Each structure stands twice: as C-alpha cells, then as structure tokens.
Amino acid sequence: MNIKCLIGCFLCFFAVQLVNAQDLRTGTEGEYKTEAGAEFDAPLDGIVEKKIITDRRVLPYDDIREADIFWEKRVWRVIDVREKLNLPFSYPEEPFFSILMKAAEEGEITVYGTEDDKFSYPLAPDEVASMGATVDTIIAFDPETYEEEITIVRNDLNPEDIKQFRIKEIWFFDEESSTLQVRILGIAPLKDEYDENGNYKYTTPLFWAYYPECREILARHKVFNPENDADITTWEDLMEERRFSSYIMKRSNVYDRKVEDYLTGVDMLLEAEKIRMEIFNFEHDLWSY
C-alpha cells in the first residue's frame, strides 16, 4: 500500500511539472505581432499565469448614514514620489500616472478639470490625450533643391515629469461603529511649470480623478514590491491601507487657504504636522479612561 502511494505521488508530481513546462512553452492566449505583421503567441513571462489580481473583486464601502456622522474634516495631502516609501509610484515599467492616464484616455474612468476640486467639469478622452503634450516645429532644407521642409513633432507628457500627486480625502467619525475613518475622494497628478529660461514657476494639477470610480482599475494593477516579486498587493490595497508618505497642504477652513499661503519652509511642515495631530487627538479625547 505504501509503495502504491509513493508511485501515485510521484506520478502526480511529474504531471504537475509537465503542465508547468507546457505552460512555459505555449504562454498565454494573447496574440502579438512582429515587425513584419505576423501574429504569434508570446511565451509566458513567469512560472504560472497569474490570475489572482485580474479575477479579484473590490469590496464596496460600508453604508454610512448621514445621521451617524457628527464630525468630519476635509484634508488635502501631497504625495511626493521621490520619497523612499513612495518610489513604487514611479516604477518605470508601469508608473502610477500612466495607469490613470491610460484609463482616462480609453474612457474607463472620467476625469475632471482643475477649475475646482469638486469634480464639476468632466473631460473628454481626447482632451485628456492632448493634455500636457507640446508641439515643436522643425524647419530643415533639402540639400539638393534647397527647399524648405517643415516637420511638426508631437511631444507627449513624460510620466517621469510627474513628481507629486494631490489627494483629497474626508476624515469622519461614525457614531454607529464609534470609529474615526477616512475615505479618499480624488487624486490629481501635479506637474511643474517652468518659464522660457527653464526656471521653476509653480506646480499645477493636470486633472482630478474620482477615486471611488478608480478603485476597480487600481485593483487590477500590482504594486511593485522590492522584497518579493510574488506579492499581490494592488494599488487599491496600497491606497486603502495608506501605505504611502504624505504631508498635509490644506484643510477645510473659513478662508479656504492652503498652508503655504500663510507659512513657508519648516513652519509649513510643522503646521501640517499640527493639523494631523489635531485630527488624532480629536478621536483620542472622545474616550474616557
């Protein structure tokens, strides 16, 4: 009986290895084309075809009654992709900005203009495609006929030019669960603007993406993990778990002004930390010990 079990285990192991080897040779069903236009099946870039992320479903938010929210505060944050914790945002193979841009151009999500941050002015996909692009005119002369030749070159926006993202979120206290919660409302990529001499002028948002609508898209894209390539953490996981570094640039106030409007330098960072601690202390002071 033991010998039969060993033989059965060996045959099962051999069959699994054979299937894996066959998958490695045939690859996925997606068709690719060579430069000559011939179609072919690309080989599998890995050991197995990973479908966990593509098949997963995004859990909807809990229903919150208006009567259960007795306190809330709107906060705007800035995520700088040059910080060590935020380096996955600028991963060259698939930058976070490219995910949002591609989804907006293909009409999978609706992005909004920057006239305000209340998602009031939806943009068409063709408007998004031309956003940030520049056109250069190159004039050349034919060496034989000396005729002038004009060539127009389109320069698309480079994802590496996006160094920061702006986050709009709401902190609120839910009486039903007696918890302080936060929900992200919008994400805006920021682009640095320069003058003709290359001197920095200011930073401006390109568009606003409504985060609840983006969750399905972000849940289908994996976040790069430098410690483990088999990690299946998605961008939706990262945002919900708040695994990013940021600083507060504004909170809702009667003057509707940013922190940088009345403070600069280190004082601005200290004020941002003060705002963060005020939100933390608000929940802490609600409890009796």
Write up this protein.
- This protein has helices at residues 2-26, 52-55, 96-105, 125-129, 211-218, 235-241, 265-285; strands at residues 31-33, 39-41, 69-80, 111-112, 134-141, 148-155, 162-174, 179-194, 200-205, 208-210, 247-251.
- The protein is an alpha+beta fold and 289 residues long.
- A hairpin with a 5-residue loop joins strand 8 (179-194) and strand 9.
Series of secondary-structure elements, N-terminal to C-terminal: HEEHEHEHEEEEEEHHEH
End-to-end separation in angstroms reads: 65 Å
Radius of gyration: 26 Å
Query: With helices defined by DSSP (H or I, 4 residues minimum), what is the helix count?
Result: 7
Q: Which structural category fits the helices and strands?
A: alpha+beta
**Biggest sheet character:** 7 strands, antiparallel
Q: How many distinct beta strands?
A: 11
The percentage helix is: 25-40%
Beta-strand percentage range: 25-35%
Average pLDDT, all residues: 85
Enumerate the spans where pLDDT stays under 50 for 5 or more consecutive residues.
10-30
Principal-axis shape equals globular
Secondary structure blueprint with pairings:
Blueprint: H1 2-26, E1 31-33, E2 39-41, H2 52-55, E3 69-80, H3 96-105, E4 111-112, H4 125-129, E5 134-141, E6 148-155, E7 162-174, E8 179-194, E9 200-205, E10 208-210, H5 211-218, H6 235-241, E11 247-251, H7 265-285
Antiparallel strand pairs: 1-2, 3-7, 3-11, 4-10, 5-6, 7-8, 8-9, 8-10
